[in-house]
UniProtKB/TrEMBL annotation:
GO terms classed as biological process: anaerobic respiration; electron transport chain
Keyword Transit peptide: no
Any one Gene Ontology cellular component term annotated for this protein: plasma membrane
Name of the molecule in the record: Cytochrome c nitrite reductase small subunit
Family matches, as InterPro entries: Cytochrome_c-type_ET, Multihaem_cyt_sf, NapC/NirT_cyt_c_N, NapC/NirT_cytc_sf, NrfH
Subcellular location, principal: membrane
Designated gene of the protein: nrfH
Annotated NapC/NirT cytochrome c N-terminal domain residues: 35-174
Family the UniProt entry places it in: Belongs to the NapC/NirT/NrfH family.
Length: 213
């Protein structure tokens, strides 16, 4: 004699049936598979893994940042600091990647929907981070009294001038609009399309261009 299934098992099966009726299971699976596939393509096209590194080339995944990359690369800071050294907090590892993810999501949203201004300027949370990093690297200049425009205490409490109130063109030079610097020279990024797909498209184009007999 076959025993009845335990109540907990039948309850879980009935709950699953209510959440996903039999007639909807295939469409739901297809939809989930499509979303998963699109997510993989999006991660690949956006070169998402590059944002986990400190490589400055990740900043030019969005082509509107090419002037900033070009001016940094040709300035004195390129020899001693990367983009993240200035634009990401370094107090804790958790805060570093939290700020990086939050700021990156904001940048990606604005770039995707073409909401970027003609003249790109740092927003308020980023200003505090940059100021802290200026002090982190150049604290000895303030501590030793070499820099007379602002004291270390004023810089740390934000009561004095910000560093770039005087050093406005460090390290990105004079701020220009996007349309005036669109031809700034930057490194060529790796292609996002895999090699096998390039070959397949080339074969397809060749077959389409063959003269008809």
């Amino acid at each position: 004699m076959q025993s009845d299934p335990p109540p907990s098992s039948s309850n879980s099966q009935s709950s699953l049936a209510r959440l996903c009726p039999p007639g909807w299971r295939l469409p739901i699976l297809i939809g989930l598979g499509t979303l998963f596939g699109l997510s993989i393509v999006l991660l690949r096209v956006s070169n998402a893994t590059s944002y986990l590194s400190d490589d400055p080339k990740a900043c030019v995944n969005c082509h509107i940042m090419t002037p900033q990359f070009a001016t940094w690369e040709r300035g004195s800071h390129a020899r001693v600091a990367s983009c993240n050294d200035c634009h990401v907090p370094h107090d804790t590892l958790l805060n570093k990647y939290y700020f990086k993810a939050k700021d990156g999501a904001r940048h990606a949203f604005m770039f995707t929907f073409h909401m970027e201004p003609q003249v790109i300027k740092v927003h308020e949370p980023g200003m505090a981070v940059i100021q802290d990093n200026c002090i982190r690297c150049h604290e000895h200049l303030l501590d030793e009294g070499v820099h007379l425009a602002v004291s270390l205490q004023e810089a740390e409490t934000g009561t004095g001038k910000l560093c770039w109130d005087c050093h406005r063109e460090t390290p990105h030079g004079k701020v220009n609009s996007l349309s005036s610097t669109q031809w700034a020279r930057t490194p060529t990024l790796d292609p996002v399309m895999p090699e096998w797909m390039n070959k397949q498209l080339s074969k397809q184009n060749e077959s389409e261009n063959e003269p008809a007999e």
